[in-house]
Write a structure and sequence with these properties.
The complex is a heterodimer of chains A (about 110) and B (about 110).
Chain A (H helix, E strand, L loop, with lengths): L3 E4 L2 E4 L5 E7 L5 E7 L5 E8 L5 E2 L10 E5 L2 E6 L8 E8 L5 E3 L3 E5 L1
Parallel strand pairs in A: 2-11
Antiparallel strand pairs in A: 1-3, 3-8, 4-5, 4-9, 5-6, 7-8, 9-10, 9-11
Chain B lengths: L4 E3 L2 E5 L4 E6 L4 E9 L5 E8 L4 E4 L2 E6 L4 E6 L8 E9 L5 E3 L3 E6 L1
Parallel strand pairs in B: 2-11
Antiparallel strand pairs in B: 1-3, 3-8, 4-5, 4-9, 6-7, 7-8, 9-10, 9-11
Classes of the chains: A mainly beta (about 110), B mainly beta (about 110).
């Protein structure tokens, strides 16, 4: 299993600002994923972040809005840029190998006013 | 949409009763995973069942998988108030690199 931590755990931000969320894993992993969970909804994948390559974004998500860094095999950041109230969600990072269990961080609860 | 669907959307039972949640999906899968989420927190992995397995147990949890019907069920026996949470199924689909989550079931266990 993997132990994943996220910072911050929650934040309240003003519209138009940006927030960077950090994800730290206790072991080296190749694949890291960023998900968004809007209020009362299920999880939607934002992007897959592999170390040494550009993140791969899902339909509806773009790099300008959600830039991702993956500087090494244990760390990643997701930035939510130029925020609006519609960005209020829980953002979760996860790690896992193909066809194996995927583990999730505790999430970052974001409220945009 | 590649997202699965779960039913019921919400379930309320008395402590000690069993709770059954169902998940349906649309494509071929490598495995299906069930997660629990307490009140907007992170997801806790409960169980993984592979496409060649039909049933799996873990403590008070029993998961079944019927690939011919593209469906799975999660049974929680002898429920406890602490089981109150949202439960999600997630499919590891053939040819994809990530999980696709179902819509979730909100379970409330009344003490």
């Amino acid at each position: 299993s993997a132990v994943i931590s996220q910072k911050p755990s929650r934040d309240i931000c003003q519209r138009g600002t940006s927030l960077t969320i950090q994800c730290q894993v206790d072991s080296q992993v190749t694949m890291m994923f960023w998900y968004r969970q809007q209020p009362g909804q299920s999880l939607t994948l934002i992007a897959t972040a592999n170390q040494g390559s550009e993140a791969t974004y899902e339909s509806g998500f773009v790099i300008d809005k959600f830039p991702i860094s993956r500087p090494n095999l244990t760390f990643s950041t997701l930035t939510v840029s130029n925020m609006s109230p519609e960005d209020s969600s829980i953002y979760l990072c996860s790690v896992g190998r193909l066809q194996e269990t995927q583990y999730f961080g505790p999430g970052t609860r974001l409220l945009v006013l | 949409s590649q997202q699965g669907e779960e039913d019921p959307q919400a379930l309320s039972i008395q402590e000690g009763e069993n709770a059954t949640m169902n998940c349906s999906y649309k494509t071929s899968i490598n495995n299906l995973q069930w997660y629990r989420q307490n009140s907007g927190r992170g997801l806790v992995h409960l169980i993984l069942i592979r496409s060649n397995e039909r049933e799996k147990h873990s403590g008070r949890l029993r998961v079944t998988l019927d690939t011919s019907k593209k469906s799975s069920s999660l049974l929680i026996t002898a429920s406890r108030a602490a089981d109150t949470a949202s439960y999600f199924c997630a499919t590891d689909q053939t040819g994809a690199n990530n999980l696709f989550f179902g819509t979730g079931t909100r379970l409330t266990v009344i003490p």
